[in-house]
Amino acid sequence: MAFASGAFKKLAINEEVTFGTLVAAGGIYLDRIESTVDLTKDAYRSAAIRTDQQKTISRHGMQKVGGPIRGELNPGAYSRFMQALLRRDFATGATTGAQTTISADNTTHTFNRSAGSFLTNGFKVGRVVQASGFVASGNNTRRFLVTSVTATVMGLLNLDGSTATLTTEAAGATVTITEVGKTTYVPSSGHTDKSFSIESFYSDINQSEALVGCKPTSMDITVPTTGLDTVEFSVLGQKLLRNTSAQLTTPSAAIGGNGLASANGVILIQGASIGIINSLSMKIDGQHAVDGVVGSNFTPFVWPGPIVGTGNFTAFFQDAVMRDYFADETEVAITLLLTASNVAAPEFLAFTASRVKVNGFTKDDKETGGIKGSGTLEFLRNTAGGSGTSSDDSTFTVQDSLAP
Questions:
Q1: How far is CA 139 from CA 104, 173, 177, in A?
Q2: Cβ count near 98 (within 10 Å)
């Protein structure tokens, strides 16, 4: 007799065309640390007072599907859930198109142009870009993080947080600058509302549990002091479909990668690299809800609510900057860039909240190890951003170098 083992469990997801209706073909496997999305039910016991002084009636009520999926952050791995939660599909980012008016300056660490506009093209602070067409090959082979944008000047940083490595080159060559991979963000209109089938196939005992009508309801990103960075999605769904063979028949292989770690990447606050953050977590909550109806034992839908963004941080008390952001109620922009390797053009994930309130900076009192302050963050819609500006009109933005 076989017993189910986690090593033989295969987790796969597939986007649904119709809410609650499984699509067998397609989808993708997910690597996981843990997935405990499952079926639960309400239970009702009779309140009748009987002469035999016992209870004889108990019934099951509404089915509930829910639970977390937790994994290691990797470019491309969870892009389907991310775009569903933010309610906008990943899309190709800004590009200059081929231009002969773009130069590179290693003194100012910038790309410059004498005609056209980086802002009109749609470039934003916190995005990763790569150039092609420069005569100096090093200007083409390295990816850069954008720290500032005006119509004619783009400030740059290497993806390891060091000063941008450029070769000074005058305009004249046919150069194109492009945002790498794809980007999504919480839009102000045209929201999507995607649902998924999530299958746990226990291949060692030939049992399939496909949970349909599932939506990722929140995303928790954790960047610890040491170790690999993780993401946890909370899920709400509609019902369970059972079978003795896999119900998602042709999932693609899981996207693995090298893993993202807090030691590899950059944190920008107000466009400047900062080296005092000890730990950081960010949460995007879609505030979804389910409800029951008479005559059915499962919810007819999973309803989305307004998107709320929050975070937590600890930071070494090096200067007054973080304290004063809190004390003065100064709104700031924060970008978290995480890279999968130390090469010049690594795969990456970048998360940007361009209107953040620092809600707290309370300090510990340690004799050794450095005094740290801690507080919470609140992400708000940046109504000053959008077309022609250096930030998005949004609460939260994700750039993924391997988003499909």
A1: 8, 12, 10
A2: 11
Sign of the C-alpha dihedral, residues 199, 190, 89, 126? negative
Query: Residue 322: which H helix or E strand, with range?
Result: helix 321-327
Closest by CA position to 335, among listed 404, 399, 384: 399
Q: What is the pLDDT of residues 342-393, one digit of tens each?
A: 899 999 999 999 999 999 999 999 888 889 899 999 999 999 999 999 999 9
Cβ atoms within 10 Å, residue 230: 18
Please give the model's pTM, rounded to 2 decimal places.
Answer: 0.94
Q: What is the pLDDT of residues 205-239, one digit of tens each?
A: 999 999 999 999 999 999 998 889 999 999 999 99
Name all domains of the chain by residue range, CATH numbers in brackets: 6-40+59-91+186-400 (no CATH), 94-180 (2.40.30)
CA torsion sign for 5, 70, 65, 86 is: negative
Helices (H) and strands (E) in the chain, counts: 4, 25
Task: Annotate 75-126 with three-state secondary structure.
Answer: CCCCHHHHHHHHCCCCEECCECCCECCEEEECCCCEEEECCCCHHHHCCCCC
Q: What angle do CA 7, 9, 14 make, to 5 degrees?
A: 140
Q: Are 66 and 236 in contact (CB under 8 A)?
A: yes
As a whole number of angstroms, the longest Cα–Cα distance in the chain is 97
